[in-house]
């Protein structure tokens, strides 16, 4: 069934000079199939719904980005607390010289060029920029019209910076680092293989290693060893486990090897280390700390 509902520029734009208008849809209700004589960018902030674009269904939620062209047909068939921003724009009114075609996939673009994902840090940057654009679009004087266009150009560029194809988890260096640091913390007890981790998250091991070294000053295994030894120190200071148990809790399956590594790092054996911190049987005070990590 072909829908003939057409939305017109005259109903949505402030004047015939304004090239952009920001329509917030907080919430976006269900909306029948339609097309427009303007183009629109859709940024989904929260909630979920079913978006049908050119007969292709998309289960949408926060971080989804659509480039909808004037002649594309789309509808919102269901909506649950769906909140989105519609940035409506009129290509023929854009006056700044920029490669708009490359920035905003046009009529000839493939369907895959119309749907992207935004990273979370990208979303927070964009919220601010879209708000500024929304305010500027509310005015009709020539300066504001031009400034709206400049802000729109900025939004279009930022979308390109922060978007990624839906099936590629393009995480920033900082996000990759956070993910790895978290994974290492929960791997104190179990073996950790960077290659497996990278395969699971589709990351490049070589570049992640370089970022890790640059930001922490450690190699990944060196850092993991320090986490494990720290945990061992804590257990030896405060716990009652045997040395074998401590070794196992810190990811060493061989307690002799654990003792060698511990000794190399602190110059004392785990047993001696414990004695320095825990009261002797006869109630004597502990004799003092070995603090410096000789890593
Ligand atoms: C509707 C819906 C449509 C958009 C119009 C302007 O609520 O979001 O997609 O074209 O607003
Ligand atoms: Ni629309």
Kindly state the percentage of residues in helix.
40-55%
Cα distance, first to last residue? 70 Å
Give the overall silhouette. Answer: elongated
The CATH topology of the largest domain comes to: Jelly Rolls
Low-confidence stretches: none
Main sheet, how many strands, which sense, barrel? 9 strands, mixed
Relative strand content = 15-25%
**CATH homologous group name of the largest domain:** Regulatory protein AraC
CATH-scheme architecture of the largest domain: Sandwich
The CATH class of the largest domain, by name, is: Mainly Beta
- Number of separate structural domains: 2
Structural class: alpha+beta
Mean pLDDT: 92
Order of helices and strands: EHEEEEEEHEHHEHHHHHHH
Number of helices: 11
Question: How many E-type strands?
Answer: 9
Give the radius of gyration. 29 Å
The small-molecule ligands in this entry are: beta-L-rhamnopyranose, nickel (II) ion
Gist of the model:
The protein has helices at 9-12, 100-103, 120-136, 142-162, 173-185, 194-201, 205-216, 220-238, 243-249, 255-266, 270-277; strands spanning 6-7, 20-25, 31-36, 39-53, 56-61, 64-68, 74-89, 115-118, 163-164. With 295 residues, it is of the alpha+beta class.
Can you walk me through this structure?
The structure is a single chain. It is built from eleven helices and nine strands. The protein is α+β, with helices and mostly antiparallel strands and 295 residues long. The chain folds into two domains: 159 residues, Jelly Rolls, CATH 2.60.120; 120 residues, Arc Repressor Mutant, subunit A. Strands 1, 2, 3, 4, 5, 6, 7, 8 and 9 form a nine-stranded mixed β-sheet that branches. Strand 4 and strand 5 form a beta hairpin. Nickel (II) ion binds next to strand 3.
């Amino acid at each position: 069934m072909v829908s003939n509902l057409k939305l017109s520029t005259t109903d949505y734009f402030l004047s015939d000079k304004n090239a952009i208008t920001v329509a917030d849809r907080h919430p976006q209700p269900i909306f029948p199939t339609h097309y427009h004589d303007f183009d629109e960018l859709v940024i989904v902030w929260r909630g979920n719904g079913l978006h049908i674009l050119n007969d292709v269904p998309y289960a949408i939620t926060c971080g989804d980005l659509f480039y909808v062209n004037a002649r594309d047909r789309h509808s919102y068939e269901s909506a649950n607390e769906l909140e989105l921003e519609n940035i409506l724009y009129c290509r023929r009114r854009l006056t700044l010289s920029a490669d708009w075609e490359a920035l905003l996939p046009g009529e000839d673009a493939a369907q895959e060029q119309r749907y992207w994902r935004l990273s979370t840090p990208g979303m927070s940057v964009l919220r601010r920029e879209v708000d500024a654009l929304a305010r500027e679009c509310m005015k009709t004087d020539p300066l504001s019209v031009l400034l709206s266009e400049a802000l729109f150009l900025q939004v279009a560029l930022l979308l390109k910076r922060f978007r990624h194809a839906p099936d590629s988890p393009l995480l920033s260096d900082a996000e990759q680092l956070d993910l790895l640091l978290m994974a290492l913390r929960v791997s104190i007890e179990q073996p950790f293989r960077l290659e497996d981790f990278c395969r699971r998250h589709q990351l490049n091991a070589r570049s992640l290693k370089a970022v890790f070294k640059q930001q922490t000053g450690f190699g990944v295994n060196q850092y993991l060893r320090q986490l494990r030894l720290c945990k061992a120190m804590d257990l030896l200071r405060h716990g009652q486990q045997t040395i074998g148990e401590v070794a196992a809790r810190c990811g060493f399956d061989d307690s002799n090897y654990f003792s060698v590594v511990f000794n190399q790092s602190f110059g004392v054996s785990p047993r001696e280390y414990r004695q320095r911190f825990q009261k002797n049987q006869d109630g004597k005070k502990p004799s003092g700390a070995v603090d410096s990590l000789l890593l």
